[in-house]
## 1
Amino acid sequence: MSSSSQRTLVILDERGAAARLPSQIASLVQGYRIIHLSDTRHAPYGTLSRVSAARLVLLCLDLVRGYGISAVLLASAAAARAALPTVRIGCARAGVALHEGASLVAREVVRRHRFGDVAVLGGEIVDERAVAEALGEAGLPARTRAVPLDLAALGEAGKDALGRLVEAQRAQVGTYVLGSSYAARVADLIRRSDPDAAIVEADAALAAEVAVALEAEPAEGKTASTVIRCATEASEHWQERIAELAGVAPDAVAGRWVMPAGPSEGPFAVAMDEDGDPLD
């Protein structure tokens, strides 16, 4: 499956929350095969133990190793919290570059924040903890808070309520972070309700950051990048949801894979202790 004319970037997504990201990256770089692997089969990574989350990430990478992976983008804040040390070792052992999405997006928040609090809507790609950590490291005293809304199912009444909330806290909140492709749906609403606020769309910011890293060593020939969408279990529901967010036809979401039951034995395998810390 590998090709000498294309390098391969694997985007590991949690339940389709970064569905716009592959196309955004493809529009910025050339010469890449971009594999968007959405783990739709399993519970949100934030509800899993560190051992389970790390094992799932490594197993997902094993599923697509035949493509000849050049780089991995971990586009799940929960997976990064649980599994980042383990994934770093696995990628280093496989000779693959690793880009950690939450910290890259948080870096953009630090650059753009000017005053007041930071509100994070949707936390799949980047969450309030990653943003707060980045602000603290930069010496910025901003308070970071999560806005608890189900943005995937937000109807007109919810949008009206969100608009009122944004307008009411114009004096308190200076930056809104849209932490998933779901959240990006309300960007225009926030701009109308608070024209002075900075808005960081996590997927767009992440695409720009990763594009810079990938183009540091551009592929020969400068062929257009291609996107392949797949999922660990692409039920009809998840095909429709991912396709809707990505702006593609449902039949463009390919694959129906079953995860192996045991620990990884492929090139990304890493031994862990009972707390999920790598033993290597």
## 2
Amino acid sequence: MLLLCLSSTAFAQEEGGRDTRADGQRSPWGIGVAAVVTDSPYAGEGTRVLPVPLLSYEGERFYFRGITAGWRLVDTDGFELAVLGKARLDGFDVDDLDRAALAGNGVDAALLEDRDKGLDLGLGMEWSGDAGELQLELLADASGRSDGQEVSLQYGYPIRAGRTLLTPIVGATWWSSDMAGYYYAPLREEVARGVPGYSPGAVTVPHAGVSFFRPLGQAWSLVGSLRYSHLPSAIGNSPFVEPGTDGTLSMFVGVSRGFRPWWVKQGR
């Protein structure tokens, strides 16, 4: 969810962010703050609130959007191909989970390890036109956390309502068995300590939602997104997940502003 929202933020900066330079040119830089609120599926964690500083840069080839960096290999009016690097913010700290809820699933929290954040590398493709926007990402864990892979496909159709841009979205994300197992199953070391074994295998998580963008004056922008993800039974049956959980709802909202960095000389 977070990766999707930060991409929306970058789009907002590109479409609506403005510089305060005398020549009126738009700055490729943006800065702001946001919050991601997620109904966590993990046992006893409840609602997760994550403050997010927003920093973006949109160059001719290179771009940086919060936790995503990319280098465009191909960039035409209707198609873009880029090499991607993304921070992965999935996972949990054992101390944030409810020990009694885990015990009800047959898991002793004292035997668990944290699931750490990671870094993914891969390719991103986007097709755009009158029929909407189609995005495809092929990613692999490069940090040695899960050693897994992810494939995500998403379609959106932007709708303008005055100065507001609304984009309904539908899509699905596929996780390899290694990635799903790292975040939703006991590790080999944990099983050796006595945690019951479980393997979700490869999983596909469909989602639907809407993102929005609205400029606020000449420099500021309001961005946000609401998304529901349906969890397959392989994740819902995980010993780490709250019993009866079959989906998660996430919301993102933030404000950003086009700005001119101090290290960029005036007149350039």
## 3
Amino acid sequence: MSNETGAGHVNDPAVIRRLLQTRGRWAVVGLSNNPRRVAPGVSLFLQDDLGMEIIPVSLSGEDVFGNRGYTRLAEIPGQIDVVDCFVNSQKVGDIVDQAIAIGAGAVWLQLGVRDESAAQRAKAAGLEVVMDTCPKIEYPFL
């Protein structure tokens, strides 16, 4: 898989490896029960195959896979290790800013989701950043 995501951010394979091999709490923004969406399948992979704790975040705040849902990152109690973003590129900047505000460890912008300025803000705040790729795509390369 290419590490290039355009002018600017380059995904670090060591960061990807660490995020996918270290059990943690992943807030999945854009996760719903809609089976036609990609987020549920990726989230089940993270939960069932990699042992991550999944916390659904969506506009409706619906529960998914028996996990309590929230409408905003700030509502989630406890530390969030990774904020996984299944929102379009035009909306992801706000989610990244929320991730910075709650002190998340990393943001993961899914395949097709790119925002160079948001990535730079996250890095400047000390968060690790993965952009424009998917854990299910990256995991086999570990």
